[in-house]
Amino acid sequence: MRRHRVILLLLSLLFVASPRVFAFGAHAAKNPVAALVDRIQPGQSARFVFELADQQSPEDFFELDSRGRRIVIRGNNYVSIAAGLNWYLKYYAGVQVTWNNPRPRLSTVKFPRPRQVERHATDMLVRYYLNYCTFSYSTAFWEWERWEQEIDWMALHGINLPLSLTGAATVWRNTLRELGFEQEQIDRFVAGPAHQAWWLMNNLEGWGGPNPEAWYERQAQLEQRIVERYREWGIEPVFAGYGGMVPNDTAAWRRLGLTEVQDPGSWCGYRRPGFLLPTDPQFAKIADAYYRNLKALYGDRARYFAIDPFHEGGSTQGVDLPAAGQAIYNAMKRANAGAVWVAQAWQSCPHPAMIRDLPGGDVLVLDLNSESRPMWGGDRRSPWWREEGYGRHDWVYCMLLNFGGNVGMHGKMQRVIDGYYLARGMQRADSACARYLRGVGTTPEGIENNPVMFELLYELPWRPERFDRMRWMEDFVQARYGHTLPQVVEAWRILANTVYDAPYDGLQEGTTESVFCARPALRVERVSSWGSAVLNYEASETERALGLMLEVADRFRGCNNFEYDLVDVARQALADRGNGLLKRIETAFDEKDRERFRQLSEEFLELILLQDDLLSSRREFMVGPWIESAMRWGGRRPADQEFYRWNARTLLTTWGNRHAANVGGLRDYAHREWAGMLRDFYYPRWKTFFEAMNRGEVPPADYYPMEAEWTVGTQPYPIHAESDPIEMAWKVYDRLIRHARK
Q: Cα separations (Å) of 437 from 87, 261, 265, 420, 425?
């Protein structure tokens, strides 16, 4: 195999001929790792020495060392050093920086010195992050402070290639204005703040809008700050590229001289934007205008572009796919000769014909759901298996994990591990379908849950050999809580064998859904149209894990990570118990035992309210912060506050209009088992259902009117925890024990 010289460019990630080498430069006026530590707690960076070393290394690496009383962490770039810092904090100091614990107090922590230099290196030079949907289900209403915290989290987890869609709408607005579109036409095209993801994936247009003018400006300013921080780190953002999307506006087509616009059909009841065929003379003009406006806002160093035409069933009838791929590729290359097309592997996309003839190294495919539906070619059992993988194109092993931002403990720990090392092993054997593996990534639709799975995935590149998940889990617990006890280890063993051991070959999309959040029925097999509420383990197991954690809860009082996990386990145990209770309610109905049916239905309603009370003990499980963050975008203007509040509430409930909710199947897709929603949204639905059943009446056939009423509601919700998490977990456990004795 030919040898290649690694070319290191400042702040850029390069592909070169096979074998491709990725290189992330990292030079900033101030060491960003030290700044990160001081954001966690001011002054604590003085306890460390951060050293750039061997920046020409063909591998990413970090080393843990000491010098006097100071901890030395060195690496070939700043992201590698940050990954080393995270490794040190977890496995030496017992500190885990995570979504629920972003700013732990370091000054009270002892920093033991490594006895010898510890080195970790990887040739997996891409560590990808985020999904289009994350920008709706999780980050839609974030401001700079929250983004700064997330970028710190990315760096600590070695992430160097995140999707960056904030501000994409402003690029489009400016482009359409340049092309002569009126604001009214733009308003009909650009989706609202909570539905940006599906607009950018060519699934719909206009829904949730029109957006206030100030929103476009603030989005652009926010993206500029995000990109500036990425570049300080040497992180490469992936911007939305141009893939042929145009507004469905025939008058505009005529004015622009567009003659070849294809109708890709509909998506879940929404009309898709038009697709401009590459043979249209105006294709290059529009694409060039788009990239010119992107550069004007976010700089001319953009090299990675997310482009996903025909996502989720967009019609390709009459489209010359090789020509379309070439036109998209050419436009991207005109914008930047070193550009790389980043494509999601999902269902039939990317269509092989679109990318087959493109040069190797210029396309990076995200194997979006490697833990369940791998396409890369290593698992013939996968329903989306592609014998040749992605041909000569580079790809990334990704874990999707979460759909819709739903709340629930879930994961496939063993399959995530097995799949990664299978791909690594086949790569070493020079397998045709695996030798282009370039790294790992997470592509969740929603984040801020199941931190254990993200810790696992992003450690894979730094662990050269396959490892035992149970032994890893023990180390995880020690790192997460700072110390451990046998009861806690045993509780996590139970979790590892239940919620984090979902069926190996199962195609379930995300967590086992809580029936509390379902549209009422006697038999609930799913909450969302494509989810599952079928338990694959005994409900008593999560209850047992809760009991073990409560035995020693006072020994961990004040430990942020423990208290978060305790509430999450209690929530899961209560949801699992509700699942079984609903089956007993169905049996009582079938047996015509009216009194038993009444008693059990009342108990079910009580459990929903108890779940609401429990989740009020942790801010992460409350709807108030989500709505409050949306309303902040409205400033002091009541009309704008109402607009953002409606966007935030609608996404989590009806998702869209009546047709999209009921016929398109989108209602409750983004359901959240959150305090506030349980009491005011899910409980009233179930109460209406059971009251009708107990009166011998037919329950409502359509709950959309009730749901839509909540979306326009104005009732405020608390944004801070209202009770003690340990006390509430005990209350739940006591109720579960009483329930089990009946």
A: 24, 36, 34, 10, 11
Q: Which of 493, 509, 169 is nearest to 346 (CA)?
A: 509
Find the helix or strand (DSSP H, E) in which 624 lies. helix 623-632
HSE on the CB side for 731, CA within 13 Å? Answer: 17
Distance CA 283, CA 320 (A): 14
Which residues partner with 345 through β-bridges?
A: 367
How far apart, in whole angstroms, are the C-alpha atoms of residue 690 and residue 318? 52
Beta bridge partners of 549: none
- Looking at residue 737, what is its pLDDT? 87
pLDDT tens digits, one per residue of 106-135: 999 999 999 999 999 999 999 999 999 999
Residue written as token pair 């009342």: 602
Distance between CA atoms of 560 and 212, rounded to whole angstroms? 38
Rounded-to-integer distance, Cα 476 and Cα 492, Å: 10
Host H or E run for residue 344:
strand 340-345
Please name which of 194, 149, 188 lies closest in space to residue 172, comparing C-alpha atoms: 188
Question: How confident is the model at residue 738, as a pLDDT?
Answer: 74
Joined together, the tokens standing for residue 589 give: 């109905």
635 contact partners, CB below 8 Å, separation of at least 6 = 214, 641
Task: Give Cα separations from 374 to 92, 245, 316, 332, 350 (angstroms).
Answer: 35, 28, 23, 27, 14
- And the tokens for 194? 């909570």
Question: What is d(CA 493, CA 503) in angstroms, rounded to the nearest whole number?
Answer: 17
pLDDT digits (tens, 9 = 90+) for 375-425: 998 888 899 999 889 999 999 999 999 999 999 999 999 999 999 999 998
Select from 244, 364, 218, 240 the least CA-distant residue to 302: 240
42: number of Cβ within 10 Å: 10
Contact 112, 132 (CB under 8 A): no
Rounded Cα–Cα distance for residues 596 and 602 (Å): 10
Query: Per the structure block, which two tokens stand in for 467?
Result: 């490892």
The model's pLDDT over 598-637, given as tens digits with 9 standing for 90+, comes to 999 999 999 999 999 999 999 999 999 999 999 999 999 9
- DSSP bridge partners of 156: none
Residue pair 165/227 in contact by the 8 Å Cβ criterion: no
* pTM as predicted: 0.95
Q: Residue 525 has which token pair? A: 């097999």
In this structure, what DSSP letter does residue 660 have?
Answer: I
CA-based radius of gyration for the chain: 26
Cα 172 to Cα 200: distance, rounded to the nearest angstrom: 10
Compute CA 124 distance to the chain's CA centroid, rounded to the nearest angstrom.
21
pLDDT digits 0-9 by tens, 22-63? 444 444 447 999 999 999 999 999 999 999 999 999 999 999
Strands 274-276 and 304-306 turn out to be unpaired
Residue 461 amino acid letter: P
pLDDT confidence bin for 428, thresholds 50/70/90: low
Determine how β-strand 304-306 pairs with β-strand 126-129: unpaired
Ranking 386-395, 652-661, 719-728 by mean pLDDT, the lowest is 386-395
d(CA 674, CA 614): 10
Is-contact 556 563, C-beta < 8 A? yes
Q: How far apart are CA 399 and CA 442, in angstroms?
A: 5
Peptide linkage before 486 cis (omega within 30 of 0): no
What's the token pair of residue 183? 């604001």
CB–CB of 723/616 below 8 Å?
yes
Burial class (CB in 10 A: 0-12, 13-18, 19+), 329: buried
Residue of 663, 339, 371, 365 whose CA lies nearest to 504: 371
Q: Which residue has the tokens 């305090």?
A: 675
Helices 283-298 & 213-233, crossing angle to 10 degrees?
70
Contact 347, 312 (CB under 8 A): yes
pLDDT at position 387: 87
Give the whole-angstrom CA distance, residue 383 versus residue 390. Answer: 16
